[in-house]
Write a structure and sequence with these properties.
The protein has about 170 residues and is of the alpha+beta class. It contains 1 helix and 12 strands; from the N terminus they run ββββββββββββα. Helices cover about 15% and strands about 45% of the residues.
Length: about 170
Amino acid sequence: MKMYVQQKVFRLADEFNVYGENKEPLYSVYGKFFSFGKQLSIRDNTEMEVAFLKQEVFSFLAKFYFYIDGAVVAEMERKLSLFRPNYYIKGLDWECKGDFWAHNYQIVHDGEIIATIKKEWLSWGDFYTIDVIDEINSLEVLMVCLAIDVSLQMDSVAANTASASNN
C-alpha cells in the first residue's frame, strides 16, 4: 500500500492530507498551534480521530507517544548516536534505518521491512511517499513518519538558532 503526504509551506499550524495510491484522501492531519510539544491528530474521512501523536516535552532526546483509540500503543525514542539519528519504536519493536537527513529510510522488524519512506525534493512543500508492505501497519507507519519529520524539524530549528547566535 502506498500513501502520499504533502505538507504545505507557509502555514502557521500543521494541517494536511494523506492520500492513497489513487489520490483518494485517507487521513487528515491537524496540529495544535499553541501547545507544549508537538501534538498531531490523525482523522479519517468522517473527521473521527483515529490516532494521536504527542511529543514528550521534557526529554533529552526526541520522544513521542502514539495513541490509537485513546490508548498508548507505542513510544518512539531517538537513540543517542554520534553521526546519524537512530529511532526505536517501543511497543511495536520496530527500528528505523537509513538516511534521515535525506528523508530516505526504512522501518524494520526483526530484519523484515515494514515500510519505506522517501521524500521528493522537487515539490512545493514537503512531499513523502510511504510504501507500507502490510496495510494493517499503515496508521502506525504514518505516525513514525510524522514523528521523524517533527524530530528533524526540531534539529533544523536548533541548528539555525545556534548558527544565528554565533553570528
